[in-house]
Specification:
Largest sheet: 6 strands, antiparallel
Strand content: over 45%
Radius of gyration: 25 Å
Helix content: under 10%
CATH class of the largest domain: Mainly Beta
Number of helices: 2
CATH topology of the largest domain: Jelly Rolls
CATH architecture of the largest domain: Sandwich
Structural class: mainly beta
Distance between the termini: 76 Å
Order of helices and strands: HEEEEEEEEEEEEEEEEEEEHEE
Shape: globular
Number of domains: 2
């Protein structure tokens, strides 16, 4: 009798748990679609991006951050108000996920279906007032100055096997004789300080590392602040990537030097080799 009683209680418990299981629906997001803003007050350049994260809110409550592509389990069904916020890997650091401050949130009423998956591709665009300083290697002259210490140089190429945007991309070739290059943007612009968000974006394909720095000058002073290193990709499997470099702290720290540029420095990683760094769509982005 004791065993029968225990078995009956266990069956009742499991049946009760099964009845009280929450309703689960699934939201599938594979990628972001970054589109041009027709109301933009400034030229936005190419819509290249690597919006690899989503910050998800449902009915005003946060459901967390997810790396794309994501299949997100959600407790509930029916129509819900979703706010999906674009996110990036800040400074090329895999664990540092940040809401990208210059892009619109995607909002929609989405009907969730119990035990089923709803797939969406959220769209976003830069806010219309966002400002850009752009070097896309399309104009005859580049807004770049190469240092006198450089033994290598930066040119432009249009190899169709490499070209992805526009008609040209920047090309840096390194070897034992041409092993060093340092170049700085020449936008000659006062970027906002006092903790204002400022980002460097650029596309790259590389087999050699690169150091990004901020270069600030004016009022008789100048400062170079080394910052983020872009690591090399493997020869034969390199692809175009997109970097988001957060410049807020560097630029705000240099209060006495009003002009701010970005410096790129490459030193051949390994003697006796030939390496490359292709770059395109350099943007300084700020409000």
């Amino acid at each position: 009798m004791k065993h029968i009683f225990t078995y009956s209680l266990l069956t009742l418990f499991l049946f009760s748990c099964a009845k009280n299981q929450p309703t689960v629906s699934w939201l599938r997001i594979d990628k972001w679609d970054l589109v041009s803003n027709p109301d933009a007050q400034n030229s936005q350049g190419e819509m290249s991006h690597n919006l690899s994260q989503v910050f998800l809110n449902m009915d005003g409550k946060s459901l967390g951050v997810y790396e794309l592509p994501a299949n997100i389990p959600i407790i509930g069904e029916g129509v819900h108000e979703m706010t999906i916020i674009p996110g990036v890997l800040n400074n090329e650091i895999g664990k540092t996920k940040k809401r990208y401050p210059f892009l619109e949130h995607y909002k929609a009423n989405i009907t969730l279906i119990k035990d089923d998956t709803v797939s969406i591709t959220p769209k976003t665009r830069y806010y219309s007032s966002i400002k850009f300083l752009i070097e896309d290697f399309e104009s005859p002259s580049m807004q770049i100055e190469v240092s006198n210490e450089s033994t290598a140089t930066i040119g432009r190429n249009d190899d169709p096997n490499i070209l992805k945007w526009g008609n040209k991309y920047g090309e840096i070739l390194l070897n034992d004789n041409d092993s060093l290059i340092s170049f700085v943007t020449t936008f000659n612009t006062v970027l906002p300080k006092l903790g204002t968000e400022v980002y460097l974006e650029f596309d790259f394909m590389n087999t050699n590392s690169l150091l990004t720095s901020t270069f600030s000058y004016g009022n008789g002073n100048q400062h170079i602040d080394p910052y983020v290193i872009i690591t090399p990709q493997k020869e034969g499997s390199a692809v175009w990537k997109h970097a988001y470099i957060d410049l807020k702290e560097n630029i705000s720290y240099r209060q006495s030097t009003p002009i701010n540029e970005v410096q790129f420095t490459l030193l051949l990683d390994e003697l006796g080799t030939s390496k490359y760094f292709y770059i395109d769509n350099i943007k300084l982005v700020y409000p």
